[in-house]
TrEMBL record:
GO terms for cellular component: extracellular space. InterPro entries: Fibrinogen-like_C (IPR036056), Fibrinogen_a/b/g_C_1 (IPR014716). This is Fibrinogen C-terminal domain-containing protein. It comes from the Eukaryota. It comes from Oreochromis aureus (Israeli tilapia).
C-alpha cells in the first residue's frame, strides 16, 4: 500500500513535472487545449486526496496549494522575469529582456509591435496636448548642396531623373531605415509609419544632431505644432495611406494641384514666427498656420509636406516644402529641394532661414 506522502512524490515526479516542463510555451494554447491539461491535474488531485470524481475541484486544489494550469503558466513566466531582471537568471534569459525607465515617466524610447508581430523602437511624447504621440519618421537634409544624392531618402538617391518619377518612393512604401537615436542626424522611418492607424499628427523641427534626451525641451525646438481635427481618419489613418491617394511623383498633376491643407495648433512658435522661418519671396506665396500635403510646383515636381504653411498664390513650393519625387528643376532636387536658392541661411530672396534648413523634421502620430 502506497502512503499519501509517497503518492505525492510519485505524482510530482511523473505528472506535475511534465505539466510544468517548458509550460511558458503553453501561452499560445487555446482554452480547449488547456482544459485537457487541467483535466489531468484534476484527476491526480482527486487521486491524492482520495476524493470522489464528482467532488468540486476548487477546494481540493486549494487544500493542496495547487494553482490551476493557466495560473501555473503565468506564475512561471513572472518568476522567470523577476529573476532575469534581478540578476538571478542565466545571461541568455536576461539578455532577452529590454528594461526601460522613462525620464520622469513622461517621454522617451519605447518598443512597439506591429500587427504582424514585428518589434520596433520608437520615441513617445507624453506631454504635448495630452500626450500619446509616437515618432514614425524624420526628414533630415544631410547636404543642402547635394542634388538627389545618397542620403536623400525622402526624394531620390538615384539622381535627378525624370525616368524615375517616384524617386525612392519612401512616402508610400514599407521601407524602413535609421534609428531613433539618430533621427536628428539622419533620415528615419520605422514600421509605425505604415502600421499605426492614427487620427492626428505632431511635427517637430529640431536642430540637427541634437541628442535625444533634449528633444522634449520646448526651447530647443525651431518649430513645434500638432493637428487636432482627426484628419487622418479621412485618409486611411496614416501618411502611408494618404500618399497612396496623393502620390509624391513627378508630373502627377499640374502646379497648384495639391493635397489637403490641415489647420495646426502651435506648441512652440506662432504664425508670424513660422513666416519668418522662410525667405521673403516665399512669404508672399503661403499662409502660415497649416500643414499641407503633396504640393506641386511650376515645373510639375511634387513635394510631400509644406510644414506650417499652405500655398495660396504662386507655385514655387520647392523653397518651403520638403520631400519629393524623382525629378525637379536641376537646381532643386533633394529632401529640402531648394531651401538654399539664394545662398544658405542668408534669409534673402527664396532661401529659407538657417534654423529651418539645419533642423530635422520629426513626424509623430496619435
Amino acid at each position: 500500500m502506497v502512503s499519501s506522502a509517497e503518492l505525492e512524490k510519485i505524482i510530482h515526479a511523473f505528472v506535475s513535472s511534465r505539466l510544468d516542463y517548458c509550460n511558458a510555451l503553453f501561452t499560445i494554447l487555446d482554452k480547449s487545449s488547456l482544459s485537457r491539461l487541467q483535466a489531468i491535474q484534476n484527476a491526480v488531485a482527486r487521486l491524492l486526496t482520495r476524493s470522489s470524481k464528482r467532488a468540486h475541484i476548487t477546494p481540493i486544489s486549494y487544500c493542496l496549494h495547487w494553482l490551476p494550469i493557466d495560473f501555473r503558466i503565468r506564475f512561471k513566466i513572472l518568476v522567470l522575469t523577476y529573476r532575469a531582471l534581478n540578476g538571478q537568471a542565466p545571461d541568455y534569459l536576461s539578455k532577452l529582456l529590454i528594461k526601460y525607465t522613462a525620464a520622469r515617466c513622461l517621454y522617451g524610447v519605447y518598443y512597439l509591435t506591429t500587427g504582424n508581430g514585428m518589434l520596433y523602437q520608437t520615441y513617445c511624447d507624453m506631454t504635448t496636448a495630452g500626450g500619446g504621440w509616437t515618432l514614425v519618421a524624420s526628414v533630415h537634409e544631410n547636404s543642402v548642396y547635394g542634388r538627389c544624392t545618397v542620403g536623400d531618402r525622402w526624394s531620390s538617391q538615384q539622381g535627378n531623373n525624370a525616368d524615375l518619377p517616384d524617386g525612392d518612393g519612401n512616402w508610400s512604401n514599407r521601407n524602413t531605415f535609421g534609428t531613433v537615436e539618430s533621427a536628428t542626424s539622419d533620415d528615419f522611418k520605422n514600421p509605425g509609419y505604415y502600421d499605426i492607424t492614427a487620427e492626428d499628427m505632431s511635427v517637430w523641427h529640431i536642430p540637427n544632431n541634437l541628442p535625444l534626451e533634449f528633444w522634449n525641451m520646448e526651447a530647443a525646438a525651431v518649430l513645434r505644432y500638432h493637428t487636432g481635427n482627426r484628419f487622418l481618419r479621412l485618409y486611411g489613418g496614416n501618411l502611408f495611406q494618404l500618399f497612396k491617394q496623393y502620390p509624391v511623383r513627378y508630373n502627377v498633376g499640374s502646379c497648384g494641384d495639391r493635397g489637403p491643407a490641415i489647420p495646426i495648433v502651435y506648441d512652440h512658435g506662432d504664425k508670424e514666427s513660422t513666416r519668418m522661418l522662410y525667405g521673403p519671396s516665399s512669404r508672399r506665396e503661403f499662409e502660415p498656420g497649416f500643414i499641407t500635403f503633396r504640393a506641386i510646383n511650376y515645373e510639375r515636381a511634387a513635394m510631400a509636406i509644406c510644414s506650417g504653411v499652405k500655398p495660396t498664390v504662386g507655385y514655387n513650393t520647392e523653397h518651403y516644402c520638403i520631400g519629393g519625387g524623382g525629378y525637379f528643376h536641376p537646381d532643386q532636387c533633394g529632401d529640402f529641394p531648394s531651401f538654399d536658392y539664394d545662398r544658405l541661411g542668408r534669409e534673402q530672396g527664396w532661401s529659407a532661414s538657417r534654423e529651418m534648413t539645419e533642423a530635422a523634421v520629426l513626424l509623430f502620430y496619435r
